[in-house]
Amino acid sequence: MLVAPDKFKGSLTAPQVAEHIVAGLRRSRPDLPVVSAPVADGGDGTVDAMVAAGFARLQTGVTGPVGKQVAASFAMRGETAVVELAEASGLRLLPDRPSATTALTATSAGTGELMRTAAMRGAKHIVLGLGGSACTDGGAGMLTALGARLLDEDEKPIPPGGAGLLRLARIDTRDLIRVSVTVASDVDNPLLGSRGAAEVYAPQKGAGPSEVAQLQAGLAHLAEIVRRDLGVDATDRPGAGAAGGVGFTALAVLGASMRPGIEILLEQLDFDALLAGARLVITGEGSLDRQTLHGKAPIGVARAAARAEVPVVAVSGQRQLTRDVLRRFGFEDAYALTDIEPDPEVCMAQAGPLLEELAVRIADAHLEQSLSRNR
């Protein structure tokens, strides 16, 4: 059996989810061969998933979203590094709750510092996972950390954060560190407009209507300067609005390609090889809902399993999709912690033991069926 879940946000990391599922399976069948391959979709938990897959975890101090030093990790194997924006520039790193001030001043500099460190350690290709961002600076901080100069009319560096973009007069990329970048994201928003980075995501980062307008203007100005100085227009490219516009800068200035995060992660895990010997796959995430169907990790796992003709079941903290809907997307069955414990708060607090109980049920219900199917 192949166990390939994403995290249960707020409760367990993806490796912890996998650990509890494996424990439950072996509680039911002690001799059951099980392979654990926790996954992620490019957001929070991507580095953890890659470390569980055999990448080395490297830690360094970087500039956090409000300018204070924070400890952040990236994963590396050979010449490939996996950098997770949330590790260095994430909402969870804010010292307090998001506010109007942090919405205007939060920076992506730490993400660029992680990328620079990875390049200095020999990385020729960087997978950049976007998600959970505290900043709406259009990736300006990231660019600066990678050696670009973003200057105002007086040839001085612009202030950090999205508000500082309005002072941008020119961009100098002569000293920019050049490395191949693939952006891992399931976000397809453009940079600007009603579906753009400021309108959709800045309110989640503490911005009110006036801050949203200011951030929108700053991002539009950044796009204008990039178009003028670098001859690139990426404002409408899908994913340009990811992580407060970091997607835009990665595409327009770093020349990055963008792909669904789960596809990249499955490639790095050599997931097809793991599927070759599997009789059943167990995947899942904290909530199976409409967002799941738009390219989240369980859907990517289900698609890969379908190509290999291996049945898939899903586990989750709560399930907002009917089994009929999930079957249409390739899942044979689905289980939720709320099937056992209806109180969501108890599910959050006791996610590990409840997952083990679900795994016992899955083994009892599906193992003989899967073995019979494959005999």
From TrEMBL:
Keywords: Kinase, Transferase. The keyword Transferase applies. It holds the Pfam family Gly_kinase. One of its GO terms (biological process) is organic acid phosphorylation. InterPro entries: Glyc_kinase_flavodox-like_fold (IPR018193), Glycerate_kinase (IPR004381), Glycerate_kinase_RE-like (IPR018197), Glycerate_kinase_sf (IPR036129). Gene3D superfamilies: Glycerate kinase, domain 1, Glycerate kinase, domain 2. GO terms for molecular function: glycerate kinase activity. Belongs to the glycerate kinase type-1 family. This is Glycerate kinase. It comes from Nocardia uniformis.
